[in-house]
# Entry
Amino acid sequence: MTAKRIDIEAAAAFLTAHDGYTILSHANPDGDTAGCAYGLCRALRKMGKKARVCCADPFSRRFSFMWEDLPEEDFTEETVISVDVADSRLLGANKELYEGKIRLAIDHHVSHVDFAESLCLEPYASACGQTIFKIVKAMGVPMDKDIAACLYTAIVTDSGCFKFSSVTPETHMIAAELLAYDFGFSELNYILFDLKTKERIALEETIYRNMKYYLDGQCAVIILPNSVLDTVDPEDSNGISAIPRQIEGVEVGVVLKEKKDGSWKASLRANSRADVQKICSVFGGGGHAKAAGCSFTDCTAEQAIEKLIPAIKDALEVK
Ligand SMILES: [Mn+2]
# Structure
């Protein structure tokens, strides 16, 4: 299906005209989809409308400030919308429940695959939170510190603390406007990015001890079997794929996580030279040039590495 493309003003008009909202976030939710959903939910409630947030998977405890003071409301769902969802497959368990019922998708992924009746897409926004900010403004809802904290979280998480190349002057300008609402951005950033559980620190110790280098140190590999993953909260094993590419001289980082069914999910991250999307596509996976993934079934982690290393070697030699 083809979604009707609508701009910020039209999206604001749609949201103003309807009521009884279910706001869908993508599965394995990040700060962007959570911040967009709760920021918009709060704005809609401020307009006197009924709204709730719905996600197939639980949100991180780090985001609890988004909903802690937000009472659950009982109402009949009238209008389903989605935020930061690039593809209906990313709705996870909610796909079956809501596919075909989504009136409006608000998103920022260039790769967006139509699934909603209308689409408000800003493909060059570093976070969907930027788009939600503009829509909230266009609806005439006065910004407050609770909405600002949600939208700031969306932007700061999806922009990698304003470090990613997707960041534009507009990203900073919107963040600057949000900072005026005095939500305690310094404490919030500590909770979002610095705070670690003791289990996470122990996991990092195991990771650093067992990490292996290949291809003259141009490739670093981390293996996370269930025997290790089972000792930590799933959230504590997030963000590991960012570790190898921090190491000087490493061009490609690989993290192999064992799944419950015994298969291995490989997450590849590249610095400047290699295109990991191409490497992963050889094994039926995909993603972006600098961040991609693929899966290996019926083999050990060592066998998966034996398949990956030659492909990485080729990718490094091409350029
Ligand atoms: Mn996003």
In short: The two ends are 39 Å apart (CA to CA). The first strand starts at residue 4 and ends at 5. The chain has eleven helices and twelve strands. The mean pLDDT is 95.
